[in-house]
Design brief:
heterotrimer; A mainly alpha; B mainly alpha; C mainly alpha; A: mainly alpha; 2 domains; four-stranded parallel β-sheet; three-stranded parallel β-sheet; 5% strand; globular; B: mainly alpha; Fumarate Reductase Cytochrome B subunit
Chain lengths: 538, 330, 182
């Protein structure tokens, strides 16, 4: 970890000074500080997915072992991206620097680092673009806001593009819809041409490519894990359920982020899915090949994302299912909504999803043939197909965190709220400018959920946590519900630090707690093994 | 430096026009040649830039969804902020372009501390932005009286509305005051707010100073330093009908005004002012959120190297069989 | 005039200067945002500083028990412990209060405070400083706890499985090795 520098007396005195020195941003090189960045990618992992310039490297070292012609690679890559994406070209050209986005980024709010303002994050790359791709920049140079691409500039780009969670909150406020997520994606694509990925992203990508999921779980390990959950469900409900794997001829393929299979509290959400499906008698199957809904490739390059995503449709075709249900995950649903069909479609070998229980036809996904589990469940509840006892969740006072991607890259907002309101009695919204389309990121998305960058994660998590703290103090909220596997892991950490006493849950854990299953024994505990309200004495 | 430089540039432009017309007597250059060149450059440049953007495809359907999506009949869709149809997109774009919907969002911060209801300066940005763009547009339309022999009724109506306060002679146009005020605010904002000052470039100050110069010279011309108005109209009509004439005694302030306008036109395609065209081409705003319903096609979609199920099964077949998982090949 | 009356009279001035001084420790262009944006959700850092400083100052002026201030110190230090500050910088804000008070007193030449009272006041501030060190350490330790817990949560099901399988855990050892590597 970080070398501890004992501050000199002069530096200590400076800490008591009233002001800090001010330099223009172009004259302020980025200082890569421990706690704010993720370890560099391992050459081995990049090699597995055939990425160029694969090598071990360390961001905190002076020498990044860049290839000889790295600038040429960068510019060729940039030209290529400008030719391929109108968004990139337009966003490089039309920003007027009005500053509407400046204070909308959770990383800026939490860190105070001006280069975390979305406009400046984009300007880091725009300045390079102007220098080499615009007439004004070529002639006027710095006056036109241009600067040459040096090693220091490259390091700065890397540092700040791996401090953006592509949450799109800034895009919401931009009068031209400039989307920093799009710019960060391009920036990361360029760093990947130079082998500058992070270990936390490239490791899961390699795992997912070879083994089907980010955690690198082999087929039997997935089954083992799910069987462990089946045991727990039996202990709690007295019902033994029998999930199937890689089963041909099933009506539905179910895909969820692999985090739900191993990481608490996501595992409780996974148990929730299985209990619900069992109660409905749903004809569904898990796949060990397409065992990942999430897509860390999306945080590396467009091509890598497509390569990982291809498994979902390929497996649906091989198994001959009618349609796909997807679990609770954030960026997974951005990918499924805005990218999957374009990459790997058309999925004409499947049928328009129809709920076998209610007969509802999901017209809004008639091309992708994949529905969100909260759409599926909300429809069940609306049609009175579930027997629910919300009082089993009475020990919980719940608030709901919209995931960035389902909110701003899809618009799934009322379905999960409808479910929560039907399975729980105590629900309170956070303040209006922190939810729905204005939701604050958990601070650890886009593959930033490593542990070596914990300070960065906590800074980014502050605005969200601050709003939770408010409802905790006002309404006694003790449970933060969400529909994202990364949220379940990272908000747990964020709550632990900022708002101790608030736990994190997936929506389907709440559903399963309230769900009265046919033939179940009298439940004593919830899925976590805690005594149900009114059963504490037992 | 980044403020002084553009300011000096605009002052130099004024001096240049003044010296050119008043001292060197180059009325034809400043009154005919430069305006023609500027307009030609503006039109060609604008089209070039838009075509250049258009040459890059939109590979993915990436609207920023700002409200509830189209879902069940019993869940109310936010059709304007998260449109799923072309009509919705038209509505969204109209709100965006006509009333700056996204900028307005900034003001939606209700829960405030303290007794007084204080709004952030963002609301002022929205108001100033609206005031600036709308008054600029109205002033531009008003100028059509110079482009046509007969002043159309619509223009007369706009003029009437614009001067309804009936102050002064000639009647004071509201938009003149509003434009000047809004531009001054936008300059002031860049100078006074450290965050905004930090992100501002010379390219942000230059157009503001230039427009300030145009508005000032226009106002001087109308209210204070009278020009030979019949001559001006004769000259502009000449320009419009491609029969350029240079009437005598128009007054140098007109040439300064015209030169600054010409500069703005020529500068336009090279600069961030292209946001006027770009806003219509922004994929996060001009696309319907219906990519689950209708497949969006990427023109450069290409086959990629994937790890197939067969390869996967080859690697894990024994383990799969041992675990009781079905396999394709025994 | 007693020191406490004097300081109570000057409360808003002291509080203002104190907040200002501490907020000025952030990058210049950012500090204005922290100062001006009054929405507690849009600007949690600025809001926390202003809100908590007010409470800490009041506790000092009212000679409240030191524990009263702990929660407010915690609010601030919890933020500064993860920002770009060295440990000394992170807790320096409490010492800045001394400087601010000294400056305010210097302007009030007419009212020379009782040295004994001033000494006591400084001592109270020092006590807050000591508490601050403790809170800072707790925050940092918490961060390391969280890192460890995340790894544990991530492999919870594996550990559970391994335990159930007892010694015959050759199957489980395989994937768990992968996870730890990741």
């Amino acid at each position: 970890m970080a070398k501890v520098n004992t501050p000199k007396p002069a530096e200590l005195a400076e800490a008591l000074e009233y002001t800090t020195p001010q330099t223009e941003w172009m004259e302020t090189p980025a200082v890569i500080k421990p706690g704010t960045f993720c370890w560099g990618a391992k050459g081995k992992n990049l090699g597995i997915v055939e990425f160029p310039n694969a090598r071990d490297w360390n961001p905190s070292e002076e020498d990044w072992k860049l290839p000889e012609n790295w600038q040429e690679i960068f510019f060729t890559g940039m030209k290529n991206l400008l030719d391929k994406y109108r968004s990139f070209k337009v966003f490089m050209d039309i920003c007027v620097r009005c500053g509407a986005c400046a204070d909308k980024c959770h990383f800026f709010i939490g860190s105070g680092d001006p280069k975390n303002m979305p406009v400046l994050r984009a300007e880091l790359l725009r300045s390079v673009y102007r220098n080499d791709f615009t007439l004004a920049g070529k002639i006027l140079g710095k006056i036109a806001g241009a600067r040459p691409l040096t090693v220091d500039v490259l390091k700065e780009l890397w540092y700040y593009f791996y401090q953006c969670t592509e949450c799109r909150r800034c895009s919401l406020f931009c009068p031209y819809g400039i989307d920093t997520a799009e710019i960060t994606m391009m920036g990361r694509e360029l760093t990947n041409l130079l082998g500058l990925n992070t270990d936390w992203i490239s490791g899961p990508v390699a795992n997912c490519y070879m083994k089907g999921n980010h955690l690198g779980l082999e087929p039997h390990a997935i089954m083992n894990s799910i069987e462990g959950m089946v045991d727990d469900i039996e202990t709690i409900t007295g019902i033994r359920i029998n999930p199937s794997f890689n089963r041909k001829g099933a009506e539905i393929l179910f895909v969820t982020p692999s985090g739900d299979l191993f990481a608490d509290p996501g595992t409780y959400t996974a148990m929730g899915y299985m209990m619900l499906f069992h109660e409905l008698g749903l004809d569904y199957t898990w796949s060990t090949y397409a065992s990942e809904g999430g897509n860390f490739g999306f945080f590396s390059s467009n091509e890598m994302a497509k390569r990982l995503n291809s498994k979902i449709y390929a497996e649906a075709k091989r198994l001959g299912v009618k349609y796909i249900i997807g679990g609770e995950c954030g960026h997974m649903w951005r990918v499924l909504t805005q990218y999957m069909d374009t990459w790997n479609g058309p999925a004409d070998f499947m049928e328009v999803p129809v709920s076998p229980i209610t007969g509802t036809r999901f017209e809004n996904s008639k091309s992708t043939k994949m529905i969100h589990i909260t759409e599926f469940t909300a429809d069940l509840i609306k049609n009175n197909k579930l027997k629910l006892d919300p009082s089993r969740n009475d020990d919980l006072v719940i608030t709901y965190h919209d995931s960035c991607n389902t909110a701003r890259g899809m618009g799934l907002m009322d379905e999960p709220r409808y479910i929560i309101n039907n399975v729980c009695n105590n629900f309170h919204e956070m303040p209006e400018n922190t939810i729905r389309e204005q939701t604050f990121c958990c601070g650890s998305g886009t593959g930033l959920n490593a542990s070596e960058n914990m300070e960065l994660r906590m800074r980014g998590g502050l605005p969200r946590a601050n709003a939770v703290k408010f409802v905790k103090e006002k309404h006694g909220v003790n449970m933060l519900a969400n529909i994202c596997a990364i949220d379940r892991a990272t908000l747990s950490a964020s709550m632990d630090y900022w708002v101790p006493g608030v736990k994190v849950t997936g929506v389907h854990e709440l559903v399963a707690n309230a769900l009265i299953m046919t033939g179940e024994k009298e439940r004593e505990t919830n899925l976590r093994g805690d005594a149900l309200p009114g059963k504490e004495g037992n | 430096m980044k403020i002084v430089l553009p300011l000096v540039a605009v002052i130099m432009l004024v001096v240049l026009a003044f010296a050119g017309v008043q001292v060197a007597g180059m009325q034809f250059l400043f009154g005919v040649l430069i305006p023609y060149l500027a307009i030609a450059f503006f039109i060609a440049g604008f089209i070039y830039r838009v075509i250049k953007w258009g040459m890059s495809p939109v590979p993915f359907c990436i609207p920023t969804t700002a409200g509830q999506m189209k879902s069940f009949p019993w869940i109310k869709q936010n059709k304007l902020d998260n449109p799923s149809s072309t009509m919705g997109v038209v509505g969204r774009m109209a709100l965006e372009v006509l009333v700056f919907r996204s900028l307005f969002r900034n003001t939606k911060t209700e829960l405030r501390e303290g007794p007084q209801l204080s709004y952030g300066s963002e609301k002022f940005l929205w108001i100033a932005g609206l005031a600036f763009h709308w008054s600029f547009l109205i002033i531009f339309i008003r100028h059509f009286r110079f482009f046509m022999l007969e002043t159309p009724f619509v223009i007369q109506m706009i003029e009437g509305l614009d001067s309804f306060l009936q102050i002064g002679a000639p009647l004071l146009y509201l938009t003149d005051v509003v434009l000047l005020g809004a531009v001054t605010f936008l300059v002031f904002r860049r100078l006074a707010m450290p965050l905004i000052k930090y992100i501002s470039l010379p390219a942000d100050y230059f157009p503001l100073f230039l427009i300030l110069g145009i508005a000032t010279s226009g106002i001087l011309m109308r209210y204070f330093m009278k020009v030979h108005i019949v001559g001006v109209k004769e000259m502009v009509l000449g320009l419009v009908s491609f029969n350029p004439v240079v009437p005598e005694g128009i007054g140098v302030i007109f040439y300064i005004h015209l030169f600054l306008v010409s500069t703005l036109l020529a500068y336009f395609p090279l600069s961030k002012l292209m946001h006027m065209g770009g806003v219509f081409m922004s994929p996060t705003r001009n696309m319907a959120n219906n990519s689950r319903e209708v497949r969006h096609v990427n023109p450069w979609n290409y086959p990629v190297h994937v790890h197939t199920y067969d390869e996967y099964e080859d690697e894990f077949r024994e383990k799969m069989k041992k675990a009781g998982l079905p396999v394709e090949k025994e | 005039m007693s020191l406490s009356t004097l300081l109570s009279d000057k409360r808003s001035l002291i509080l203002g200067s104190w907040c200002d001084a501490v907020i000025s420790g952030y990058p210049h262009d950012t500090s204005n945002f922290l100062r001006k944006n009054e929405n507690r959700f849009a600007n949690p850092v600025g809001h926390t500083i202003q809100d908590s400083f007010g409470h800490i100052l009041d506790a000092l002026l009212n000679n409240a028990a030191p524990e009263v201030s702990t929660v407010y110190l915690d609010n601030i230090i919890r933020i500064r412990a993860v920002q770009d500050f060295s440990p000394s910088q992170a807790v320096s804000f409490i010492f800045i209060l001394k400087k601010v008070v000294r400056d305010v007193l210097a302007q009030e030449k007419a009212a020379v405070p009782d040295p004994e009272e001033l000494f006591l006041f400084n001592e109270q501030v020092d006590a807050l400083a000591l508490t601050s060190f403790e809170i800072y350490m707790q925050c940092r330790e918490k961060l390391y706890d969280i890192k460890a817990n995340e790894i544990k949560n991530m492999t919870y099901r594996l550990l559970q499985k391994a335990q159930k399988m007892g010694l015959d855990s050759s199957d489980a050892a395989d994937p768990s090795a992968d996870i730890v590597n990741k």
